[in-house]
Amino acid sequence: MSLSKFASLKLFITGPTYIRDEVKAAAALPEFGHRDAENELRFGPIRRHLRTLAGCGDDYEPILVLGSGSSAMETSIRSLVADDEILLNVSVGAFGDHYHAIALANGKQSTNLKFEYGRPIDLVVLEHKLKELRPDVVSFTHNETSTGVTNDMKAVCALIRQYDAMPLVDGVSIFGGADIDLSHSGAAMYVTATQKSLALPAGFGIGFVSREAEDKAATLTNKGHAHDITRQLVCARKNQTLTTPNGALANQMAVQLDSIVNTEGIENRFARHITMRGMVEEWVATLDGFEMFAPKGFRSVTMSSVVCPEGVTQAQLKGTVKEALRSKGYLMDPGYSKLNAQLEKQGMRQIIRIGHMGDITPDMLAEYLVDLEVELKKL
Prior knowledge:
Structural class: alpha/beta
Helix content: 40-55%
CATH class of the largest domain: Alpha Beta
CATH superfamily of the largest domain: Type I PLP-dependent aspartate aminotransferase-like (Major domain)
Radius of gyration: 21 Å
Number of strands: 14
């Protein structure tokens, strides 16, 4: 097969994301046995660096679940929600709804508390629901990829704890791009993945399991095999995975995490993401008819959602603008399609998303915004 037809594009979508050449090349490093000493050379540093990025020590155990962020989310549900327990899922967008759907697919008694797209969790409304429902477990999204809203994880977890419930947190699209201070977050389990702010290919779901979560998981049955935290932890503590990992991705992950921690530095990485969010905010402020979708104080540092002027259609964004930018070497994000379809049906304005996560640099973002502005002004 000729590979020439595969376009080489700079990805400004919200995942998968741009991967540096050094990380791409690491996929060609030697394969290894996942029960051999060579495995330790990869996964020992990987797990140490994951703890550093998370801001935690031995109070959380990192596990790698083969699959994606959804695999890690399902692991949290299957291992930490008993069949007779009440789960409250709190959603501020499509991926919050996804957490709820995973719970239902596993037969859990889940209620979905939904907030308006583009708005963060309202703690007053959440507290009312906690009083009414008295759930055993509460799941919610830290960073909602469909809307660009970041919830105040510590405040939400603290409120959940007041009602003696266990918080499960989906941090798929923010981990690696922001300081989550996991040890002081209040989360019982925090889940994420490789393909977004870590700037790696998809392939591993990542879970940070607290001692509290480990103890509870040991009491539950019907957890399956790959989604059983108890089984996962036995291997994790030997710096191994429960089942055979993707060796190429493990090599890439070892190289990338070492670069994040020891070359760029995590403080510099987090500061770079904050800078890029500010760049988008300033850019939007210069455009007539455009505005940020998420409210100030709750805007993601890894991706931004921008409201377009009246009259801009989904067809224009997905067809005209996206394809024009493709011809310039970019993959543009015309917005979360289900949300935009819903907004269009209601006669409301369309939304585009700008991914500025992982290894995207301010210079790369600045060039993209110039070209994006040219195409948007043609509408």
